[in-house]
Write a structure and sequence with these properties.
The strands form two sheets. A three-stranded antiparallel beta sheet has the order 1-2-5. The chain is built from eight helices and five strands. It is an alpha+beta fold. The protein has one domain. Strand 1 and strand 2 (about 60-65) form a beta hairpin.
Length: about 210
């Protein structure tokens, strides 16, 4: 049976993904630096309660002035909230993009892969920022929320931004970039699908035999 173009692409994409994942995970601590820096810079510029940020391996830590109660050896003590985000949660779109580019044998795949990698940095930073905000909203408690001055609308906006980044931006952005970089390949996929449907439609069309006079 002849393998279809989409079938070959999916198989190659899985193979390339399996090959690239270990390399991406090994390099994650370096790949995480740009989005963590961008996310931390944006947060520090927008919110007065952000004291700073740092990178610990593949994790992004936000240092805040928001005080919360924490369990200590002699009882509860006040401490400053420092939410932590893991870069791989929002960075896997990078390896997904490269795997699809290689599977489709994209023209100048290395160049388009580099451009796509740069474009994905703000997408990853979005996810990091909104998970920081979500964690601050959840962990700060009533006194922390009063200090932050957040109302219900603010909390709902944070929840929407977090869900949009986690469920939509992170997985969909690399696919959209791949579609943009592979217009000819996508056109070939549509053509193949149309040609495969044509015989089925013909088989379903009733034939009328003309009788002899």
């Amino acid at each position: 049976m002849r393998a279809t173009l989409i079938g070959r692409f999916l198989l190659l994409a899985i193979v390339w993904l399996a090959l690239l994942l270990p390399l991406w995970y090994w390099a994650a601590k370096w790949l995480a630096t740009p989005p963590i820096w961008l996310a931390g810079t944006v947060m520090k510029g927008l919110f007065r309660w952000v004291e700073g940020f740092e990178q610990e391996g593949v994790n992004a830590v936000l240092h805040t002035l928001v005080q919360v109660r924490m369990a200590g050896p002699t009882g509860d003590v006040l401490g400053e909230l420092a939410p932590e985000v893991s870069y791989p949660v929002y960075g896997y779109g990078l390896v997904l993009l490269w795997a699809m580019l290689l599977a489709a044998r994209t023209e100048r795949w290395w160049f388009k892969g580099l451009i796509g990698s740069v474009i994905l940095i703000p997408v990853q930073a979005w996810g990091i920022c909104f998970q920081w905000l979500r964690d601050v909203a959840i962990s700060s408690g009533p006194s922390g929320l009063a200090y932050l001055g957040w109302n219900q609308w603010s909390l709902e906006g944070i929840a929407y931004g977090y869900q949009f980044g986690f469920l939509m931006l992170t997985p969909v952005a690399p696919i959209m970039l791949w579609l943009l970089f592979n217009k000819r390949f996508v056109a070939a996929l549509w053509l193949e699908a149309a040609l495969e449907q044509t015989p089925d439609k013909r088989a379903q069309t009733p034939t009328v035999e003309r009788g002899r006079s």
